[in-house]
Amino acid sequence: MAPESGKTYKIRNLQVPEKVVDLSGADQRSVIGWNDKGGGQEAHNQAWRLFRQNSGNWTIESLKAPGTFIGIASGPGDGVHLIGQGVPLEWQIIPNREAFAGEGFDSEREANAFRLLIPGMYFNADLADHGNAHTIQLWGKWRGQNQAWTFEEFRG
Fold first, then answer.
1. Which residue, of 17, 43, 69, 75, has the fewest CB within 10 Å?
2. Rounded to an integer, what is the distance from CA 79 to the centroid of its chain?
3. Band of pLDDT at residue 99, cut at 50, 70 and 90
4. By its UniProt entry, which InterPro entries does this protein fall under (predicted)?
């Protein structure tokens, strides 16, 4: 499902579908990949409001901690962790089909997933260690499914 501005979503990893983007309950700052908690109040740290900006890019705000947006811990680069921050960071959200135009995909699911990129750069949100870790970091764009995400409307 393509995101719509103003709606709230769970952002699910394509390679490890049981992991969703989560604002850590331990420190309310780390943005991690964590097992899906389902719905209800206990899942609010896994729910994100997306807002389309005039630039065409998006901001991603926590439902649990309004005013906390997905950002990065330092300047863009491989291995830079995603964090919750008070200043909105714009993200380019593009379909895999567009990110890898002209290339074939193993499945329709993969073709219809999305990339979360730093605008104008090739760094995108990456579930670290090929999906085997909880860390979500920036990494240079490649075909790995640990860098592909789906959006599911949150009903909690």
1. 75
2. 15
3. confident
4. Ricin_B-like_lectins (IPR035992)
Would you list the DSSP string of 37-101?
--SSGGGGGG-EEEEE-TTS-EEEEESSSTT-EEEESSSS-TTPBEEEESS---BEEEEHHHHTT
Residue extents of the structural domains in the chain:
8-153
The predicted-structure confidence for 67-97, as pLDDT tens digits, reads as follows 999 999 999 999 999 999 999 999 999 999 8
pLDDT at position 45, please? 97
Question: Tokens 């499902």 belong to which residue?
Answer: 1
**Contact assessment for residue 34 and residue 19, using Cβ atoms and an 8 Å cutoff:** yes
| Identity of residue 62 | S
Architecture of domain 8-153: Trefoil (2.80)
Check residue 135 and give its pLDDT. Answer: 97
Question: Is the Cβ–Cβ distance between 79 and 139 less than 8 Å?
Answer: yes
Res 114 pLDDT > 90: yes
